[in-house]
Every structure is written in structure tokens, then in C-alpha cells.
Amino acid sequence: MKRLSSITGKLAPLLLAGVLTSTLGSREHTLAAASPQAKEHAAPRTDWPVYGGQSADDHYSALHQIDRTNVHKLKVAWTFDTREPGGLQTNPLIVGRILFGFTPMQKVIALDAATGKNLWTFSTGTPGLQPTRGLSYWTDGAQSILFAGLLTNLYAIDPATGKLIPSFGDGGKIDLRKDLNEKDVTQSFAALTTPGLIYKDMIIVGFRAPETEPALHGDIRAYDVHSGNLRWIFHTIPVPGEPGYETWPKDAWKVTGSANNWTGMALDETRGIVYVPTGSAVNDFYGFDRIGDDLYANTLLALDANTGQRLWHFQGVHHDIWDRDFPSPPSLVTVRSHGKQVDAVAQTTKQGYLFLFDRTNGKPLFPIEEKPFPASTTPGEKASPTQPIPSIPAPYARQLLTADMLTTRTPEAHAWATEQFKSFISNGIFVPFTVDKQTVVFPGFDGGAEWGGSAVDIKTGVIYINANDIPWTGGLTENKPGGSLGANVYQSQCSICHGGDRKGSPPAFPSLIDEQKRLSDAQVTEIIHNGKGRMPSFPNVEAARLTAVLEYLKTGDTGSPATSAPKSANRNEIAGAKIYDKNCAICHGDDLLGAPSNYPGLLGVRLRLTDQQILSNIHNGKGRMPSFHKLSDADTAHLLHFLGDSASPIIEAAVTSNNSSKKEVESALAPPGGFAKYRFTGYRKFLDPDGYPAVQPPWGTLNAIDLNTGRYLWKIPLGNYPELAANGLKDTGTENYGGPIVTANGIVFIAATNFDHTLRAFDSHTGALLWQGDLPYAGNATPATYMVDGRQYVVIATSNARNPKGPQGAAYVAFALP
């Protein structure tokens, strides 16, 4: 942690006019953490001014106009169509009568919360397709600031006008890639997927980073809300002299990255403590260069919100080699433990565990035992001998796949799944991956719990967790010498998601085979540089490397580029393959097939996108893809060459020109420093040939757990596949993204499901379905509830990015009583 001097700039008072004057300047939105009893007797808040409802991230609302007796009468009150394609995962803010949200192209919008009428729109002028799950709002009662993370920047916006506040940072924005000891930020990627938290006159932020090298250190930072000056920083990868440094190899902090907070935080405003869960260090699946526990990766941190000083921590996974990030923001709750009221913090996990701690000191409220797990058989790897396992509550997702659990949906699906299962290693959680064999990860890489977070009834101490319950598989393969430049770039950067065979794991990670038939080279370039959905941007994939990987996507290097170079192998293609392996294969797979709809296939990508678009994606990132602007021009050209023929070559000459240095080409050909001996073969969802999970239902669930006792109150399937339900296979549950909310009078609202386009209301006591409303698209977001003019609304952001076969679009839909 580094304490910096506080330099507070002056912000001219905002001129709030018309309807915005009365709604934004009406009161000070200071959300002090109060006891459940105090909150129960206080006048209920009518707005939703913080991501997750309030800084405690409990997703709780004291509004009670909508109750068990009338919820069935809910009707659509208004719909706002963004008229943009792409994903929309936003939990909007409602302050007074104004709703603040995003569009899929990363525009910020202000709507009249009673009618859905657009009041203003802010755009940076550069469209983005990265996930933007919420905004942050600061006010002192006289002034107000809206903070929005767009691409690699944090913007300060006047909420009354939608204009930038120029006194903040550099003309109204700060670059999130700075202040992280990075010499050339243009070659790095950082994006604010989940909004920062406001504390006093600071905004505390994490950021999203790539899953592959190069990746920034995932440091936690606090900025002055007025000036944009850095107030404090906490190093999640300790530097010499800091506690935790001893859990890494010497000087590992110089070469490794990430251990970032991408999923959000929770804040105890009364005590001034911010709770920050972090993800894994890179590379995710082969940790040969980070042997040790790797603090503070995969850690729940309790930091002094005033200074960034660490108060306590708990590491949920030691030396993570499974991508087991803490996936959700923690929830603050008061429970009864050993006869006393205890202010607690609850943290969910991808693997289906829930940890509960006294939030003042980190003491576990349910027993946690360090249990032994298998050693790694991969040369150079050293798995942790133990992992922390809570004894209570029981996991909310299945953790061991056995033959008797395989799908029986049809005889053909069962036979196929049985044959596939015979080739897998399936021994439960925390089994290290092996070389050239698939290991079952259950629940999968997307959980268990996910980024939507949980809801907590602050009156009862019951937590509501929606979970995915689908197995995936993963494995390692050797980075062998030879192969084309494009193949190597693909294997190192893309295969982690799209697979070594480019087949991906649709729809989560799209196939890249025949990608040129769907996208132009320009479109692929744009996605590489800007990211899209869950794919981060890859600004370091440019020039020769971009050319090579685009070519590889078209041809697939039928001469087995990943294992041996053809006798006539072009030096540029070989260099491109190396670059691809390092930067692209982690998501797009060994074979460029990706895993639709999460990681697109790259086969033939240069026939679908122009090289300019490909370069744009590589440099800027797109969706979940980070930027790869650290790649040199020569390397990018090699990568493009590797990706195959282009319909619009603009940098082909860079591959063979005199400006493409011999040293750069030779460094790409050499087995290096820069390439690990083994790489991940790609995220593979275990789906049957018809695209359904190859395991028996439930495939997604909603769970109610009493945190006072650790006992389950109820557990139900969440979601349907409409076509299966029409044929009698109902209540299977589905993958779900986005969380629930809970109201004071016992209603849990949740959408989240991928395929049935439904917002549901459940009885919080029994799990009984009370109502469901149709949505135009999937509600892959967390709802919000608020009251305007005496009328309570429930609003949800909808889109269909996770279901490419469904209708495409994005809209906000608000429901209310007639």
C-alpha cells in the first residue's frame, strides 16, 4: 500500500435546471451502514443510487408497495430501446426520478425513471463493446458527479447535463492504465467492468485485465472525486518490503500481472472499511513463474478506505491454476453467531462455496479447514498441497461429475456423453490440469456464483444466490517449436478461450472455424483491439502479429502449425504463430475456433474484417477482450500474416519490408522467455451434440441460505430452454448471469437466465414462483427497484449477446402495478 498526498481540486457548483434540479440536488445520498433495526424503522429509501442498491452490496430494498398479494398484477410501465446490438449487463442507478445507465456501445444515458424518456446521452465518440455493469454517483447535497468507466478511462460527468466535468483528471477523465508502474500504457489494457465505490470524496476502483501476459498489476486505487488525483494505492502483487512478497518467487512482481478486482466491492461506511475480492494472477493455468501462494491473488481484502492500509485478508485459493477468481462482490450482513449479533461479510465463489467472516477482524463464522489436494504432474508446476474448504454451508453447486450424472435427455445424447466422459479426468475440485488430457471443472469456469452477486435480506440474514451448475473441461498442451507465426499467436493468446482446435465451446466461447464467412478482417481487427463481451482487448496484437493471426484464422494452418513447421514454412508465419500462442490462443483456442458466444472463432477472420478493423480491435480491445497494444508493428504484421489471406490488406508489406527487423522476427522464432513450456488448450463447456449441457439438470439454480445457521431454506431450478419446455422437459434451469434483489416484504426479483427472456418474482420464504413477466431479450443483469411519484418500479436491462441464436437487441424494461 502506498499512501499519497491528497490534493483536492475545486469543482464549480453544478447548475441543475428544470426537472434535474429538483431530483439530483434534493438531498445528500450518504448511505451510512446502519443496523437492520435502524434501517427497518427509518423511512425507506426510494431510489437506487449505488450499484447493487447500496454500498453494502446487499441488493436489498425497503420498498413495500409491491408485495406478495399484488405482485401478480405487475405490467410493463415503459421500455427504452437502445437501438444497438451487443450485451447490456447494467444495474442502473436511480437518483430522484432520473435513471442512469449504459447502452451496449458504451454510451451513458439518463432517462426519466417514470416514463423511460431519454434526457441526455453522453458518448466518447469511440464505440465500445466491453461489459459495463454500472456507474458511480457522488454528491454532497450541493454538487453531484456521475462516474462512468468507458474503454480504458474513468469519466466524470455532470449528471444534470451529460457533459464532462473538465476539472477532473485530464479534461474530465483519467486513464486507468496509469499509476501502475507501467512505462508504456498504450500497450496495456484496463477497463472498469464493474463501477467503483464512493467513499467520502474518493472513488475506489479495481479493473478488468487480460487472462494472458502482458497484464497490468491489479492494484486497488482511490482517486479524488474532484481532481482525479491518486489518493492511495494497494499493491495486490506485493513489491519488496511489503507483506505477502514472500509468497511469490523473487522479483515475480516485475514480470507477472493481474490479481485484480474486476467484480466489484462492498463498503462498510460507518467503519470505513472496503472489502475487495481479487482474481487470479496470469497466466491462469500454468503457474511455473509464480510458484507459491501468490498473495493477494484470489483474496478477500479488508482495506482501510481512508488510506488503503490492509486490515485483514483471506485467500480463497492458493496458487490458483484453475481461473477460480472470486467472481462476485461480497455482501455485508448482520447475523446471529454464538448468541451474539455479528456484523459479517459473505463471499461467494465459482466453486460453489460460501465464506462468512466477522467483517471487523476476518474471523470465520463457519469452520474452514485446509484440506489436501493432488499434486501437479506437469513439469515446472507446483500446486498448493492444500486449499481452504468451508464445512458450512454445503456447496450450492455440484463439484464431482460421475457417470451416473450424465445426460439422459435422449439416448443419443447419453451415448455421446458417456463416450466423451471416458476420456476425461473427473476427480472433483482443485485437480491440477494434465498435459494432453481433459480434466473436468465442475462447476465450470463461469461458476457457481458469478458477477451478478447475491441478495441479502437484512432483517432475516438470509442470502439468495443464483448459480450455474454445468461442467466444463480444461487441459494443457506443450508449446512446441515450429508452426506459423499466426498459429503461435493464436495458441498463446486465443486458444485459452477458443480452444487449440478453434472449435471453442459455443455459445459461451464461439467457434472460429469459417469465421471469415461471418466477419470481415476489419471486424475481427476491431474486436481484437477493442474487445467484445467477455473478450478483453488485445492492443499488443498488431502489425505482423495481427496479419499473421488473421491469416491463420482463414487457413487454420492445415499443415499442423502448432506442432511442427511445414518444410516451406515462412519465417513470418512461424513468428506469427509464436505470437498468437502467447496472446490469442488462451481465448480463441489452439485451432482458432473459439467458444461462441464468449470467444469468437478466428478462422477466416481477415475475409470478414478489414485489416484496419483487426488492428483496431488488437490495439483497443473489444467486449471482454483486452487491448494488445504492446505488440510491435512487426509482430502485429506477422500475426496478421498468420491469420490468413485478407480481402483488404493494409499492412501486409510490414511482414516483408525492410522496416520489419530481423531481430524481431528471430525473437519470435526463438523459444523464450516469453513463451511458457505449456499452455491452456481452451475453455470447453461439456455440451451434447445438440448444444445442451451433457449432465442431468438442474443446470442453474436459485438458493436461499440462512446465514445465521448455514442451513438451506430452499433450492430451486432457475430458468428454462423454451424448446425443451415445449416438449415437456421443464424446470431444467439454465446458465444465468446477473443477480437477484430482495425487498422488505419478502419478494426476490431475478431475471439472469440466458434463454427464456423472463423476469421472475419468488416468495423469499418458500421459493414459490409468484409472478413472471416477459422480456424482449435475456435479462443478463441485476434488476433495480425504486419509487417515483408514489409508484414503485422494477427495472431490468435486457440483451441477447449470450444467445446469438435469439433475437438481437438491447432494452431497459420497467414494471409497475397498474
- Uncertain spans: 2-23, 25-42, 558-572, 647-674
Global geometry? globular
- Can you give the helix content as a percent range? 10-25%
Largest sheet: 5 strands, antiparallel
What structural category do the secondary elements indicate?
alpha+beta
Number of distinct helices: 15
Rounded to the nearest angstrom, the radius of gyration is 25 Å
The total beta strand count reads: 42
Strand order in space, largest sheet = 1-15-14-13-12
Give the terminus-to-terminus CA distance. Answer: 53 Å
Mean pLDDT: 87
Task: Report the portion of residues in β strands.
Answer: 25-35%
Written overview of the protein:
The chain is α+β, with helices and mostly antiparallel strands and 818 residues long. It has a domain at 473-685. 14% of the residues lie in helices and 25% in strands. The protein is built from 15 helices and 42 strands. It has a 5-stranded antiparallel sheet with strand order 1-15-14-13-12, with no helix packed on it. Strands 2-36-37-38-39 form a 5-stranded mixed sheet, with no helix packed on it. A hairpin with a 4-residue loop joins strand 34 and strand 35 (711-717). The protein is globular. The N and C termini lie far apart (53 Å).
